[in-house]
Amino acid sequence: MSLRDLPSTVHRLFPLRAEVDLGALRHNLRFFQQRTGETAVMGVVKADAYGHGAIPVARVLLEGGVERLAVANVPEAIELREAGIAVPLLVLAAPLPEYLPAYARYDLAATVSSVEVAEAVVEAAEKAGPLTVHLKVDTGMHRLGVAPDAVPAVLARLRASPGIEVEGLMTHFATVDHRYTGLQLKRFEAVLKALGDAVPPVVHAANSGTTLHVPATVRGTTYARLGGALFGLVTERLLEADARDLRPVMRLVSRVVHVQTVEAGEAVSYGRTWTAARPTRIAAVAAGYGDGLPRSLSNRGHVGVGGRLWPIAGRVCMDMLMLDLGDPGGPGAAVRIGDEAVLFGEGGPSAQDVARHADTIAYAVTCGLTARVPRVYVGETPAGAEAD
C-alpha cells in the first residue's frame, strides 16, 4: 500500500494537503468546450493529471462529455483501465517494441513517432494482436514525429499491414508564438492536403496554449488536446489576455507547527543563508522539498498566513520551511501554532507566483508534489474519489 492509498483518517494526521476543487475543473472544462465549438476536448491526464489525481479527474471529464483521454505512458493508461475507464486512451510517448503487446492487451492507441516505431508496430500486430495507432508528424517541435515528406509512405505501410487501425494524425506545437506556430500549422495543413481522402478520421494538433492563444490550430480538427489549462495552470499573460474565467483547481495548504523569536544576528535554517537584522518572529510550516516544493524557493518564495503573504526565511528543508513574520510586536505576532498556511491557492500566492519565484512553470509545481501529500477532493465528487 502506498501513502496515497492510506485511509483519510491517517491523512488527517499530516497537516499538509492538496485540495482539488472538482467544481473548478468542471467550470474550466465548460469554458474550453464553449471555446473549441465543434472540435471536441481530448483530456490529457498524464503525470497523475498534472498532480491532481488521474482517476478522479478522468471521471469528472467523462461526466462533462469528454470522450477520449491521453496519457504519457503505458502504466498511466493501465491505471485508468483498471479503474474502469473504458473510453479510448492515447499513449503519447514513443513506444519501445517490447511495450507494444500491452497496447493490444489494454486496448490503447499507440503514437507512431518514427519509421522505426512503425515497423515495430507492424511486427507487434502480427504477434500480439490488433493495434490502434496515431501517426505523429514532426512539424518543428523536433522531439518526436515523422518528417512531413515521409508521412504518406509510413501511412501506406501501416494501412497495408494486417491488424493495424490508423485512427489518428497529429502534431505538437513548440510555442504559442503566432509566427512559429503558424509555420508549424502550415506544414501540418500541407500534409493533410497531400493526403487528401487518405487523412485518418481523427486529427488533432492544438494544445492548451495554442487553443487559448492561436485558435487557428483548433479549427477543422477533431480534438484539441487539453492538459494543464484544464487545471487553471496557464501563464499570467494568457490569464490576462485570453482566459480570465479559468479557475485554479488545486490549493496547497499546511499549518504552522512552531513559532519563536530570534534575536538580531541569529541565522535560520541550513547553511545560515538568512540572518535576522533585528529581533524577528519566525514561524515553521510543515511543508518542504520532500513534499515536492521547489528548494529554489529558499529566501525567495512566500506563504499565506492570516490573510498576509510572508517571505520564506532561509533554506527550504525536506519537511519544513520557515517564515519571516517581522517585528515581534507587528502583525506577525498574531500568528499561532495550528494556523493555516497556504503554499499556493486562495489565501496565498498563486501556483504561477510560486513557479516564478522557483524559476520554473506552474505545471512543474503541481506535478512535483510527492505521494505523501494527500489529495483531498472538494465540491461535488465523482464515485471513487475522497471528499472532504
Topology, element by element:
Layout: H1 8-11, E1 17-21, H2 22-36, E2 40-44, H3 46-50, H4 54-63, E3 69-71, H5 74-82, E4 89-91, H6 100-106, E5 108-112, H7 115-128, E6 131-137, H8 151-159, E7 164-171, H9 178-195, E8 202-204, H10 208-213, E9 223-226, H11 236-241, E10 250-262, E11 267-268, E12 274-275, E13 280-285, E14 302-305, E15 308-311, E16 321-326, E17 340-344, H12 351-358, H13 362-367, E18 375-378
Parallel strand pairs: 1-18, 2-3, 2-9, 3-4, 4-5, 5-6, 6-7, 7-8
Antiparallel strand pairs: 1-10, 10-13, 10-17, 11-12, 13-16, 14-15, 14-17
How would you characterize this protein structure?
The chain is an alpha/beta fold and 388 residues long. The chain has 13 helices and 18 strands. It has helices at 8-11, 22-36, 46-50, 54-63, 74-82, 100-106, 115-128, 151-159, 178-195, 208-213, 236-241, 351-358, 362-367, and strands at 17-21, 40-44, 69-71, 89-91, 108-112, 131-137, 164-171, 202-204, 223-226, 250-262, 267-268, 274-275, 280-285, 302-305, 308-311, 321-326, 340-344, 375-378. The model has no long low-confidence stretch (mean pLDDT 94). The chain is elongated. It is 30% helix and 23% strand. The strands form 3 sheets. Strands 1, 10, 13, 14, 15, 16, 17 and 18 form an 8-stranded mixed sheet that branches. Strands 8-7-6-5-4-3-2-9 form an 8-stranded parallel sheet.
